[in-house]
């Protein structure tokens, strides 16, 4: 058995803790000094309403774009927040203000990721990019189609032509979009890249939404 | 198991056995008030004729009774008054405590009036006459009657409702259904014992 | 329908300062609950005199009456504020912290005594050890039906707040812990230490401190048959009392 690389809290240099404590104490002191005219809870509520109206299940690129701009405004307004409670005992306001900043960053990631994805999957729906699944289509037939494709030859005559067109569209869409969205924090905002999804165990197939 | 638990359990037990049972016997004895002075006095005196009478009273009634009362009064100070919870059982909880204090005061007055008073004044033995003269006194009669009425009804309530709590404490009535049955039984018991007590009192009213 | 709702809130700035009442008037929103109204106050923390004040502090988590953290006294009765619908409450609405737990700030209280009580009665399944114990005993269906109801307890504190026997000055464990003792004493594995649990409940603060006011069962938001649990544990300790006397070791 190899030597265990067990690291205990005692092995961590004390400096790490004191610095982290100092960092957060300074951050909270900064937040407590915030004396603008935005109520953090009101701002949070406004942003929540914006996100719920535009970045929920049904998404449209034009609305997502407008929301992204709106979130930038919220970020600006965050800087003008008033820390409505500056007491030191059991005060939830400073940590809420700190969290609200992170919520703004996360909203940006969600909205930008959704905007750049010109398709929809999972529980989302983008009417602009509907692949128009025929109503009598059965997802199992896609597995047969994939099997034949993998074997090298698809017997196109064996499929309903409408279904076949849809399945081709579906396969094509997956080539482009069957990827995880990765966001990295760059220049004060999310930078979006993509990473392939491991589909080696279960082949992706269309879902029926009716 | 600590003494606290044991004391509470003894408190619960003494309320029913022997104090509660003594109350039932005592109320039964008072029905003789309707048989006239002679029979009543004979019945009561026959109990005191026994050489063990005084010991029986002390061991079976007074010690358990005052143990029950002492612990009970201490218990009241541990309760929090919360009038916004207007539930029937909560009302009974407070009536149990209030009646307990009331009955304790009544018993002290009652024992003084029917035992020590006659002993000191040397009129021991004429229980019927003592009681009825107290009841019919033109000045203090109405007070005596009121005190007896409240005292007796309080004691009966305290016993009947206490029996209900006893069944909870000892885990005799387990389910809500059987708890309701026990409650109905205790309500019936309250009315039966009250009727018996009021009937007895009516003889000298 | 009025367009505003008045809240009278009992506030307290810290553990050791005196409580005071503050009134807030907020716009009426149909179908709102007490928590959404407290959030309205947070968004505009201004009392009825027009003074800017610190937002009211309270605890909440699940917002669907399963976590118990938002328990407070609403219109003199204890309940969860998330499921207290404003349209069904008498106005003005009074909010107070629970009186049986130390106040931390405003409506937030320290409920750790309840969790301490669960530790005291060892309200857990005892399957310690590193070796494979194999599968546990199966629980009969008749037990499951009772146990499921008992397991709905969310340690919210309603039963203790309503209990006239439970106070800041005593050490009564209360209905919740007694009911959990019943749950674990009937569990096929956890019942191994049933006796230890009963031992705890046969001490000061244990089941003997129950006064049979039965407010607990009325106040329980989950309708847990608490008086049945108390009677059942009463039966179990009666048995143990018997064996302590007549089978003394």
Q: What's the arrangement of secondary structure elements?
A:
The complex is a heterotrimer of chains A (210), B (205) and C (249).
Chain A: H1 14-33, H2 40-54, H3 61-78, H4 93-116, H5 140-151, H6 161-177, E1 179-186, E2 189-196
Antiparallel strand pairs in A: 1-2
Helix pairs in contact in A: 2-3, 2-4, 3-4
Chain B: H1 3-30, H2 36-49, H3 53-76, H4 88-121, H5 127-136, H6 141-169, H7 176-202
Chain C: E1 4-11, E2 20-27, H1 34-43, E3 71-74, E4 77-80, E5 93-96, E6 103-105, E7 108-109, H2 112-120, H3 141-151, H4 158-162, H5 174-185, H6 194-201, H7 215-219, H8 226-246
Helix pairs in contact in C: 3-5, 5-6, 5-8, 6-8
Give a quick summary of the entry.
Chain B is mainly α. Chain B has helices spanning 3-30, 36-49, 53-76, 88-121, 127-136, 141-169, 176-202.
Describe this structure in words.
The complex is a heterotrimer of chains A (210), B (205) and C (249). Chain A has 210 residues and is mostly helical. Chain A has two domains: 18-117, Fumarate reductase/succinate dehydrogenase flavoprotein-like, C-terminal domain (Methane Monooxygenase Hydroxylase, Chain G, domain 1), CATH 1.20.58; 131-210, no CATH class. Helices cover 50% and strands 8% of the residues of chain A. Chain A contains six helices and two strands. In chain A, β1 and β2 form a beta hairpin. In chain A, α2 (40-54) runs parallel beside α4. Chain B has one domain (3-202): Up-down Bundle (3 helical TM bundles of succinate and fumarate reductases), CATH 1.20.1300.10. Chain B has seven helices and no strands. Chain B has helices at residues 3-30, 36-49, 53-76, 88-121, 127-136, 141-169, 176-202. In chain B, α1 packs across α3 and α1 packs across α6. Chain C is α+β, with helices and mostly antiparallel strands. Chain C has two domains: 4-109, Ubiquitin-like (UB roll) (Roll); 112-246, Orthogonal Bundle (Fumarate Reductase Iron-sulfur Protein, Chain B, domain 2), CATH 1.10.1060.10. Chain C has eight helices and seven strands, in the order ββαβββββααααααα. In chain C, the strands form two sheets. In chain C, strands 2-1-5-3-4 form a five-stranded mixed beta sheet. A two-stranded antiparallel sheet of chain C has the order 6-7. The B-C interface holds B 1-2, 4-5, 8-9, 75, 78-82, 84-85, 87, 89-90, 93, 164-165, 167-176, 179 and C 76-77, 162, 164-167, 170, 199, 202-204, 206-215, 218-219, 225, 227-228, 230-238, 240-241, 244.
């Amino acid at each position: 058995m190899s030597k265990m690389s067990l690291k205990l809290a005692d092995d961590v240099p004390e400096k790490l803790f004191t610095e982290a404590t100092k960092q957060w104490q300074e951050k909270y002191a900064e937040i407590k000094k915030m004396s603008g005219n935005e109520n953090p809870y009101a701002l949070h509520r406004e942003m929540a309403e914006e996100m719920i109206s535009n970045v929920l299940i049904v998404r449209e690129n034009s609305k997502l774009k407008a929301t992204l701009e709106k979130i930038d405004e919220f970020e600006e307004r965050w800087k003008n927040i008033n820390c409505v409670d500056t007491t030191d005992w059991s005060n939830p306001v400073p940590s809420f203000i700190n969290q609200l900043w992170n919520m703004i960053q996360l909203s940006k990631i969600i909205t930008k990721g959704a905007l750049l994805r010109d398709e929809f999957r999972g529980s989302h729906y983008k009417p602009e990019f509907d692949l128009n699944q025929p109503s009598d289509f059965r997802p199992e037939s896609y597995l047969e189609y994939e099997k034949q494709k993998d074997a090298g030859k698809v017997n196109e005559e064996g499929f309903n032509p409408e279904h076949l067109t849809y399945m081709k569209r579906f396969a094509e869409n997956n080539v482009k979009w069957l990827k995880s969205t990765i966001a990295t924090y760059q220049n004060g905002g999310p930078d979006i890249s993509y990473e392939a999804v491991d589909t080696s165990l279960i082949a992706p197939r269309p879902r029926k939404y009716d | 198991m600590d003494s606290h638990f044991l004391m509470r359990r003894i408190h619960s037990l003494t309320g029913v056995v022997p104090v509660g049972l003594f109350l039932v016997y005592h109320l039964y004895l008072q029905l003789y008030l309707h048989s006239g002075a002679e029979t009543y006095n004979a019945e009561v005196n026959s109990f005191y004729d026994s050489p063990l009478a005084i010991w029986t009273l002390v061991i079976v009634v007074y010690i358990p009774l005052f143990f029950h009362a002492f612990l009970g009064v201490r218990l009241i100070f541990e309760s929090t008054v919360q009038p916004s919870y207007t539930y029937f059982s909560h009302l009974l909880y407070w009536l149990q405590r209030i009646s307990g204090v009331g009955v304790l005061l009544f018993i002290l007055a009652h024992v003084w009036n029917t035992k020590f008073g006659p002993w000191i004044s040397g009129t021991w033995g004429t229980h019927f006459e003592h009681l009825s003269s107290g009841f019919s006194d033109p000045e203090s009669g109405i007070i005596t009657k009121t005190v007896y009425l409240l005292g007796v009804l309080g004691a009966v309530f305290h016993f009947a409702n206490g029996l209900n709590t006893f069944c909870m404490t000892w885990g005799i009535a387990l389910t809500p259904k059987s708890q309701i049955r026990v409650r109905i039984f205790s309500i019936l018991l309250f009315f039966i014992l009250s009727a018996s007590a009021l009937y007895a009192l009516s003889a000298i009213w | 329908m009025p367009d505003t709702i008045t809240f009278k809130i009992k506030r307290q700035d810290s553990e050791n300062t005196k409580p005071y009442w503050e009134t807030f008037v907020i716009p009426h929103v149909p179908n709102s609950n007490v928590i959404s109204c407290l959030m309205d106050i947070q968004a505009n923390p201004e009392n009825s005199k027009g003074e800017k004040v610190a937002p009211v502090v309270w605890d909440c988590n699940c917002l669907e009456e399963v976590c118990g953290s938002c328990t407070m006294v609403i219109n003199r009765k204890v309940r969860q504020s998330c499921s207290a619908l404003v349209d069904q409450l008498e106005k003005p609405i009074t909010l107070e912290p629970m009186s049986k737990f130390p106040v931390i700030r405003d409506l937030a209280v320290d409920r750790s005594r309840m969790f301490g009580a669960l530790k005291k009665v060892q309200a857990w399944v005892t399957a310690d050890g590193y070796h494979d114990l194999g599968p546990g005993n199966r629980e009969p269906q008749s037990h499951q039906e009772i146990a499921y109801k008992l397991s709905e307890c969310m340690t919210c504190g309603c039963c203790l707040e309503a209990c006239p026997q439970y106070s800041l000055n005593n050490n009564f464990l209360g209905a919740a812990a007694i009911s959990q003792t019943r749950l674990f004493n009937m569990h096929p594995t956890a019942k191994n230490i049933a006796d230890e649990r009963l031992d705890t409940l046969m001490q000061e603060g244990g089941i003997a401190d129950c006064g049979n006011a039965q407010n607990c069962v009325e106040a329980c938001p989950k309708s847990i048959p608490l008086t049945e649990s108390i009677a059942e544990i009463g039966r179990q300790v009666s048995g143990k009392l018997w064996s302590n006397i007549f089978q003394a070791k």
